[in-house]
């Protein structure tokens, strides 16, 4: 689980918790919704950032994989919100960063 501090343009801040699978789901939604910006027709036109790929690993390596993804996940979030507003402020991105009920009772570990 990644802990993300979200600062809205209004100045409000919130802390949210997201699993890698939720980032992956968002990425798939973005590539489906914006195929040209995702580079599906012309890879040179891709502006949607790359997300580190899924990794198969043993349970004992979960923390190591999460730590290795920390910087790429941070870079992904920063690049995502720097995109043109029609992407960075689309419903999928806004919903991803909004506080959810499970963010109010965060994981214990």
UniProtKB/TrEMBL annotation:
Give GO BP annotations, semicolon-separated.
superoxide anion generation
Q: Which Gene3D superfamilies does this UniProt record tie to the protein?
A: Phox-like domain
Q: Which InterPro entries is this protein grouped with? A: NADPH_Oxidase/PX-Domain, PX_dom, PX_dom_sf
Matching Pfam families: PX
A GO cellular component entry from the record = cytoplasm
Please give the superkingdom of this protein's source.
Eukaryota
PANTHER family attached here?
SH3 AND PX DOMAIN-CONTAINING PROTEIN 2B, SH3 MULTIPLE DOMAIN
What is the official name of this protein in its record? SPD2B protein
What species is this protein from? Elachura formosa
């Amino acid at each position: 689980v990644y802990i993300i501090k979200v600062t809205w343009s209004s100045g409000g801040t919130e802390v949210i918790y997201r699993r890698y699978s939720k980032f992956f789901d968002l990425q798939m939604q973005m590539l489906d919704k914006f195929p040209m910006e995702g580079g599906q027709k012309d890879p040179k036109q891709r502006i949607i950032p790359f997300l580190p790929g899924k990794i198969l690993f043993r349970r004992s390596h979960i923390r190591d994989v999460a730590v290795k993804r920390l910087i790429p996940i941070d870079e992904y979030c920063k690049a995502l919100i720097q995109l043109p507003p029609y992407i960075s402020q689309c419903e999928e991105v806004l919903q991803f960063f909004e506080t959810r009920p499970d963010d109010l009772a965060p994981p214990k570990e």
